[in-house]
Amino acid sequence: xxxxxxxxxSFSFNALVRHWMVPAKALEFLTGYLIEYSLSVDNILVFxxxxxxxxxxxxxxxxxLFLGILSALLLRRVVIGAGGVAHGA
Length: 89
Fold this sequence. Notes:
mainly alpha, 2 domains, 3 helices
């Protein structure tokens, strides 16, 4: 149900973009939205496969996912910082 609401909102916004701007901008928005939506569904599939492969209990899945996202953000920050130092930024 929640997904249907978000899809309806995005299509409504797309109609406004088409009305206020050129149709090409609306097509760009719709294309980007649908690509991001399909990638998010793909991520859910990957999470399910990883959790089942490593036999992560349902009660621990939220914590494992949270720690994975947190570590990805921290490592990304470290790598960006190291790249900035290496290039004298």
